[in-house]
Amino acid sequence: ATVLSTKRFAESIEILKSVIVIIVFPPFLLLITIRFMDSNRDMLNSLLCDELLGEILGRLQEICYCKEVSLVCRRWLSVQRGVKISLGLCIPENTSNSCFGSQVRVLLRQYSQISNLSLVSETGQLQRDTVFLDYLLDAIGEGCRILKELRFEVGPVSSYGLQALAKGSIHLTSLELVGLSPKFFGSLWEFKSLRELTLDFLGWDSGDEMDGENSDVELPLEKLCLAGIGAGHTSLGWLWRSCSKLQKLELFSCEGIGDCDSDLSSFVKCLPCVEELYLRRSRTIANGVLLSAAENCKALRKLVFHDGGNTEGLHHVVVRQYQSLEVLDLRLPLDLSNEDLAVIAENCQSLKILRLHSCCLPTGAGLKLLGPNMSLCLQELVLVGCRAVVREPGTLATLGQHLKGLKKLDLSDNDHLPDKELGAMLSSCTRLVSLRLISCRGLTDMVVVSIVQRCQALESVDIRKCDGITAEAVFALVSGCPKLRQLGVEEFKITEATKKLVSRKKIDTIKAETIDYKMATCGMMHFFNDLHNLDPNASLL
C-alpha cells in the first residue's frame, strides 16, 4: 500500500475489503465480483498473490464455477491448474498417435499437484495400440510426480508402461487397469507404495503366461479387486501367492479364479489376513470361494454376497467366522430362505450390521428370528425390497420390540408398506439416527407424525419417491426433528417456508438420485471430452 499513490490508496482499501469478504464467504463470489468490476479488475488481480489466489480457487468444486476462471485472465487459469488435485481425461477413439500423446504430456505438466487421475475411453471400447497406451503411462509418470490414485481404463498396457509409471509416480497407492496380461504381472512389483489394485480382465488372452522373473516377490497390497475372470482363464497363481497381506478382496462377475489345481491351491494363500470379502455376480465360484474363506480367513469382519448361488458356503462362513463377523450384506433373491436366516440368527449374535436386499423367499417368521438373538449388538438393519415386510403384518413390530438399540434403519423399495406397520416399529426404535424410506409409496403424512413424536435423535431421513407424503408433512418433519442434518426429498415438496427452515438449521438436502464415485478430497472430478486444443492458455472447459 505504501508504494501506491494517495489517490489510489483509498481505492485499494475498498478492493481489499471486498477480497476479505470474498474469502469469508463462498469462493464463487470472487468470480462474480471480478466479472462486474471492469474498472478495477486489473488492480484486484494484482493485489492477489498466487498463494492466496490458489487457496481461493482450490475451493471451487463445481464445474460451472471453474468455467468462469478462464474468463478472467491467463494467470488465473494457470494458478487454478496448479492447485487442482483431481482430474479426469476422456480419450477419444482412434487417437493412437504421437501428436496426441504429446498434447497429453503437455497438459499433465500444468497440473503439478494432481493426486487423483482418471483416464477412460470415450466410447467405452478398449484401444489396442499398446505402444500408444504405454506412452500415456510414461507421460503420467513424468508429469504427475505426487500422484496417489490412477484409474486407467483406456486399454491394456505392457511392462514398459508400468515400469515408466512406477519410476515417475513413486507415491502411487491405488491403481486400476483393464485387460492387463498375466505375463506383465511381475511389473506390479515396481510399485513400492501400492496398496490397492483393481484389474478388469476384459479382453484378456487366456493363453498368456507370466515369466519366471519376480516369481517369489511379495506385493504390498491391502486391497485387491478383480472383475471378469473367465472360466477358462489361468495363470493367476502368482497374483494370489504374492498377496498374503491382503485385507480386502473383491470379485465381480467372475466365472473362475484360475482353472487349474495350482491356481486353486494358490488362491488360499491370499486369504489368512482378509477382513472384508465381496462377492458380486460370481455365482459359478461363489460356493468354493466362501468355503475357502471359512477355512482360511483368520478374522473375517465383513461379507458382501450378491447374486450368488447356493448358500452352503454362506453357512460355513457364518458358523466358522461368527466371532469376528460384524457386517453381513446379502442380496440373494432366489437363494436365501428361512433356514438360512435361522443359521444367521443362531450364530451371528455379535453382528452389528445386517443388510438384506430383495428377499423373496423368507417369510415373516424367518425375519422375526433375527430379533431375539441380535438384540444386544445390532446397530443397522436394512430390509430393502423384502416381501414379508409388507405382506405379513406384525413383522416390523416384533423386530422393533427386540431391536430397541437400532441406530440405522432402511426399508426402501417396500412399495406398499403401510403407516401402521412402520409406526409400530418406530415406537420401539426411538434411538434411530438414520431412516431411509425411498420408494415406500404406501406411506402417508401419518407416518411423519410417528417419526416426529418418537425419533427425536434422527440426523438423516430419506423420503424420496414417497408419493403419499406431502409438502406440509416435509415442513413438519424439518421443524419437528431438532437434530436433523440431512434430508432426502423431491424439490417440489420443499416450500419457501421449508427452504428458510432448512437454511437456518443448516440441513443438507438430497433432491435426486446420485451416483457415488470414488473421488479425491477436492470434490467432483470432471472429464475433458475434447482434447483438440491443449494450449496452456486455452480455456479449461
TrEMBL record:
Cellular component terms per the entry's GO annotation: SCF ubiquitin ligase complex
Coiled-coil ranges per UniProt: none
Keywords from the named record: Membrane, Transmembrane, Transmembrane helix
GO terms (BP aspect): SCF-dependent proteasomal ubiquitin-dependent protein catabolic process
InterPro entries xref list: Leu-rich_rpt_Cys-con_subtyp, LRR_dom_sf
Keyword Transmembrane: yes
Secretion signal, residue range per the UniProt entry: none
TM ranges: 15-34
Protein name: Uncharacterized protein
